[in-house]
Design a protein that fits this description.
The complex is a heterodimer of chains A (373) and B (267). By secondary structure, chain A is α+β, with helices and mostly antiparallel strands. Chain A is 24% helix and 36% strand. Chain A is built from nine helices and 20 strands. The N and C termini of chain A lie close together (9 Å). Chain B is mostly helical. Chain B is 75% helix and 0% strand. The chains are: A alpha+beta (373), B mainly alpha (267).
Chain lengths: 373, 267
């Protein structure tokens, strides 16, 4: 986790939101309680596209609701540009939200929806009209201002929700799984648009999602949450390449989690002996010395299969699944565990390998990561 | 909606048409007879002679009827407005708060006028009002009507609020609306169909009430149903039919308006 943090560049600008040991406990029924967030500390920078990523029930939405002001913390502090916002109701926070199901006002037109925040702030009519026009153009819906929000498609509602939130020029925009209700193509399109919008407006985006691909493609930094705790914070590549623990490694894409025993150090690599005797080379981490039992994460796309018997680890293909852009193999090592391997289909029938074939698995030194957690 | 060949269709059951006809007949034949004889030229409500509007003219010219009708509308209007306001507040208080112990008890208390036999409410109100010495004439009737109209206004409003996504109110708060603005610009407009339905129901219930009004109304505070009853005791004339028909007409118009308004709101 420290390694991941140190890889991100130092903040050029200020901190937008700082969470200090934030804990949220929900009372359930008469006696029980659920700890949704447990001592979460986090600093989100100004102008950053920051993603809260985790499976459902991990506490990410609760965190968003605490920042928006819909819930109050049980313990800890939330600082907004340095000011403690404890007890401040939602309407007094310079933050706007794009809700998961958009929450557009069905009794108003699109333009009235977008104008709502500015009307509440008692801006003058000319300014409101101008801003509404700008915003609808920004989200590529310039001519739909007079429509009722109930007459819009899902994608259009999404854009209106975005325009409505951005119209107030908030310093922080919260997005609660805004793409989850859209179909795949539209979702991919909106990813790019959101990212562009964030860069152009310079507003701090805090984006909540359970979709790791969304998080990887859009974020400047990601915080991975699980069971109310932050597992890792870092840039997308730092989190993908150097997961802090088995949970992060598994949640961010697919991986082979292998138990190994550390051996001798060889130049800048350390020998890791897998169960069965096969060895791979990994970068040493921290104080772990020879004889230590560790877990390795080895991404399936980092393993190369070859028929050439002169190199790599010997194994046999036990399963083969064609997936279009790549083929997914399962390879049982002769002196080791079974591995998941992805091979890009760069040519017709790239390898011509099938179940039962003997193969060699090439694993580059350092491809396997020692997990610290 | 077209029912597919395999879907359950009550209409195909033997005897359905007969039972439906009997039920509808029981419901509407008496009303039809009542309205029919209000147009009778002669002073009989069972022997038809020829068409005439004389009884309507006579009823409209009758000072006692006009006084009773004025009272009825005054009482219904005031009771509807107060009951609807109270019901809206009660609906907000029972849906927009975290669940608390005794919430079910609250529902029961608010809806008790529906459960308590009307004659009991009537006697209770009569003795209570005389106990505290309140003698406001029509005012007493208005208070009594507000009491029993409350649940009729409450139920549709609560149903509407219950089905309303709280995310809308959160969105308003997120967009800088304070609680009062949120209520005015989001909750209230969204709630309007429920309020219209509740108010219409309350108005019709108040307009048609007899038992409680009979107990509570002092001389001069007579409403239309109470007047009709006093006339019927002296024998039914087509004049009573005419007044009843007009009362029926007003009720139908109000309920239809409420239905139309709701339709317009939802489309």
């Amino acid at each position: 986790m420290n390694a991941a943090l140190s890889q991100t560049p130092p903040a050029a600008v200020g901190t937008a939101i700082e969470l200090r040991s934030v804990t949220k406990v929900f009372q359930t029924g008469t006696a029980g309680s659920v700890t949704a967030l447990d001592e979460v500390s986090l600093a989100i920078r100004d102008n950053e596209f920051f993603t809260l990523l985790g499976p459902s029930g991990c506490g990410k939405t609760t965190l968003l609701r605490l920042i928006a002001g819909f819930e109050q913390v049980t313990r800890g502090d939330i600082l907004l540009f340095g000011d403690d916002v404890a007890g401040l109701p939602p309407h007094k926070r310079p933050i706007n939200t794009v809700f998961q199901h958009y929450a557009l006002f069905p009794h108003m037109t699109v333009a009235e929806n977008v104008a709502f925040g500015l009307r509440m702030l008692r801006r003058n009519k000319a300014e409101i009209r101008r801003t509404v026009e700008t915003m609808l153009t920004l989200v590529k819906m310039p001519d739909l201002g007079e429509r009722k929000s109930s007459q819009l498609s899902g994608g259009q509602q999404q854009r209106v929700a975005l325009a409505r939130a951005l119209a107030n020029h908030p310093r922080v925009l919260l997005l609660d799984e805004p793409l989850s209700a859209l179909d795949l193509k539209l979702r991919q399109e909106m990813r790019l648009e959101l990212k562009t919008l964030q860069r152009e407006t310079g507003i701090t985006f805090i984006f909540v999602t359970h979709d790791q691909e969304e998080a990887l493609t859009m974020s400047d930094r990601i915080a991975v949450l699980q069971a109310g705790r932050i597992q890792q914070v870092g840039t997308p590549d730092a989190i993908y390449e150097h997961p802090a623990n088995p949970f992060v490694a598994n949640f961010m894409g697919e991986t082979n989690l292998l138990s190994a025993v550390l051996g001798t150090v060889e130049r800048d690599m350390i020998r890791c002996q897998l169960e069965g005797g096969a060895e791979v080379l990994a970068r040493p981490v921290g104080t772990k010395a020879a004889g230590c039992r560790v877990t390795l994460s080895l991404r399936p796309e980092r393993i190369v299969l070859t028929a050439d018997p002169g190199s790599g680890l010997a194994g046999r293909i036990t399963d083969c699944l064609y997936r279009g852009t790549d083929t997914s193999y399962r390879v049982k090592l002769e002196r080791g565990p079974e591995l998941q391997v992805y091979e890009q289909n760069v040519a017709d029938h790239s390898h011509g390998m099938s179940v039962g074939d003997s193969v060699r698995a090439l694993i580059a030194p350092g491809a396997a990561r020692i997990l610290v957690g | 909606m077209m029912a597919g060949p395999r879907t359950f269709d009550l209409k195909r059951y033997p005897g359905f048409g007969f039972i439906a006809a009997v039920c509808l007949g029981l419901l509407y034949l008496p009303l039809f007879v009542l309205v029919f004889f209000s147009f009778n030229e002669r002073r009989s409500v069972s022997n038809w002679s020829e068409f005439s509007l004389d009884w309507y003219a006579k009823a409209l010219a009758n000072d006692a009827i006009r006084q009773a009708a004025t009272n009825s509308f005054l009482v219904a209007t005031v009771a509807t407005i107060s009951a609807t306001i109270l019901a809206t507040a009660a609906a907000l208080a029972t849906t927009r708060v975290p669940r608390f112990r005794g919430l079910t008890g609250c529902y029961a208390v608010i809806n008790s006028p529906l459960m308590v036999p009307e004659i009991v409410t009537a006697v209770a109100l009569l003795s209570f009002l005389s106990l505290i010495g309140l003698e406001l004439g029509v005012g007493n009737v208005m208070i009594a009507h507000t009491v029993f109209c409350l649940p009729f206004a409450y139920l549709p409003i609560r149903a509407r609020l219950h089905g309303m996504d709280t995310a809308l109110e959160q969105a308003a708060a997120d967009l800088y609306a304070d609680p009062v603005q949120t209520f005015r610009h989001v909750t209230l407009p969204m709630l309007m169909p429920g309020i219209v339905a509740g108010a219409a129901l309350a108005f019709v219930i108040s307009l048609d009430d007899f038992i409680i009004t009979q107990m509570v109304a002092s001389a001069g505070a007579t409403t239309l149903p109470v007047y009709i009853y006093s006339q019927v005791r002296m024998g039914v004339t087509p004049e009573v039919n005419a007044v009843s028909s007009m009362l029926l007409g007003v009720s139908i118009v109000i309920v239809s308006l409420a239905v139309l308004l709701r339709k317009k709101e939802t489309t």
